[in-house]
Design brief:
This protein is α/β, with parallel strands linked by helices. It contains ten helices and nine strands. Bound molecules: ligand C2E and calcium ion (CA) (3 copies). It comes from Paractinoplanes toevensis.
Length: 278
C-alpha cells in the first residue's frame, strides 16, 4: 500500500485510490470465480438444547481464490453487492443449499436437519422477483418450503418498500424468516412490530462475555424474553464454550450455534452431540 508522504498539498489519497482499484479487480475476479467454479458452500450446525440434535444448518459461502487463497465472505459479498454479481452468486448459493439438504434427506432420513438457513443480502431482498427465485430453487431440489429459512439483517429489512413485500411473499411460500445479527442494528424493536419474522438470531457480541459477570447476561436475557413474548424463536450465535452454552440454556435459549457445536464445513457432523465432557 502507498505510504503517507506528508506532502503538504496532496489531498487525494493514494491509499484510497489503490483500494478502489483493488475493489474493482476483485469484482472482475468474482466473475471469473463464478465461471471457474471457485465457490463452495459450507454448513454450520444449529443445535437444539438439551437434546443436542442438529435441527438446522446455516449455509455459508466460501471463495477459494486461485492466487490469494481463501477470501472471507465479509470481504467479497460487499463487492458482489456493489457490482451486481450478488444476484447470480446468491442464486447459486440458494440452489446449492437446497440441493444439499434434499440430498441429506434422501441419504439420512430422520437424521437429516429439518432446515437449511440461507443468507440473503440487502440487494437480493430489494429486487422484485426474489421470492420467485426462492420458489424455483425449492422446486428444482424438490424441497418443501418449510425446509428453508432466509436470513437477513435488520439493515436490509430497514430499506422498507420492496424488501418488506419480499418478506411477505416468502412467508406466503411457507419459508421462514430470520433476522440476523439481532440487537446490533438501530431499529430492532420497532421493526418486530411491522415486519414478518420467525426467528431472531442473537448476535455473537451478546454471547461473547456472557460468563464473565452477571452484568453481561442482561442483554442476552432481555433478547430471549422479547423473543418469547412475541412468539418468535431465538438462536444464539457464536457460542464457543461449554460455559456459554450452559448460561444460554439457563436463560432459556433452546437453539445454539457456534464453534463449540461445530465449525462450518462441507461435511458437517449431523449426529446429535454427546453431552460435553467435564
Ligand atoms: P453471519 O451470517 O452472521 O454468519 C456467521 C459468521 O460467524 C460466519 O462467518 C461463521 O463462520 C462465523 N461463526 C460461527 N460460529 C462462530 C463462533 O463460534 N465464533 C466465531 N468467531 N465465528 C463464528 P463467515 O462464514 O466468515 O461469514 C461472515 C459473514 O458473511 C456472514 O455473517 C454473512 O453476513 C456473510 N455471508 C456468509 N455467507 C453468505 C452467503 O451465502 N450470502 C450472503 N449474502 N452473505 C453471506
Ligand atoms: Ca447469517
Ligand atoms: Ca449472524
Ligand atoms: Ca454477522
Amino acid at each position: 500500500a502507498a505510504k503517507q508522504t506528508g506532502e503538504p498539498f496532496r489531498r487525494w489519497s493514494p491509499a484510497l485510490d489503490e483500494r478502489t482499484s483493488q475493489y474493482a479487480r476483485l469484482g472482475a475476479q468474482l466473475r471469473a470465480g463464478l465461471d471457474g467454479g471457485q465457490f463452495r458452500v459450507v454448513y454450520q450446525p444449529i443445535v437444539a438444547v438439551p437434546s443436542r440434535r442438529v435441527v438446522a444448518v446455516e449455509a455459508l459461502v466460501r471463495w477459494e481464490h486461485p492466487v490469494r487463497g481463501p477470501i472471507s465472505p465479509a470481504e467479497f459479498i460487499p463487492v458482489a453487492e456493489q457490482n451486481g454479481l450478488i444476484f447470480e452468486l446468491g442464486e447459486w448459493i440458494l440452489a446449492t443449499a437446497c440441493r444439499q439438504l434434499a440430498e441429506w434427506r434422501t441419504e439420512l432420513g430422520d437424521l437429516a436437519p429439518d432446515r437449511v438457513s440461507v443468507n440473503a443480502s440487502a440487494r437480493q431482498l430489494a429486487r422484485p422477483g426474489f421470492a420467485n427465485t426462492v420458489a424455483q430453487a425449492l422446486a428444482a431440489a424438490r424441497l418443501p418450503a418449510d425446509c428453508l429459512t432466509i436470513e437477513m439483517t435488520e439493515t436490509a429489512v430497514f430499506q422498507g418498500g420492496q424488501a418488506i413485500s419480499t418478506l411477505h411473499e416468502l412467508r406466503a411460500l411457507g419459508v421462514r424468516i430470520a433476522l440476523d445479527d439481532f440487537g446490533t442494528g438501530h431499529s430492532s424493536l420497532g421493526l418486530l412490530q411491522t415486519v414478518p419474522v420467525d426467528i431472531l438470531k442473537v448476535d455473537k457480541s451478546f454471547v461473547d462475555n456472557i460468563t464473565e459477570t452477571g452484568r453481561h447476561t442482561v442483554i442476552a436475557r432481555s433478547l430471549i424474553q422479547i423473543s418469547e413474548g412475541l412468539g418468535l424463536t431465538a438462536v444464539a450465535e457464536g457460542v464457543e464454550t461449554a460455559e456459554q452454552a450452559d448460561v444460554l440454556e439457563g436463560l432459556g435459549y433452546r437453539l445454539l450455534q457456534g464453534y463449540y457445536f461445530g465449525k462450518p464445513s462441507s461435511r458437517p457432523d449431523l449426529a446429535a452431540r454427546e453431552a460435553p465432557f467435564v
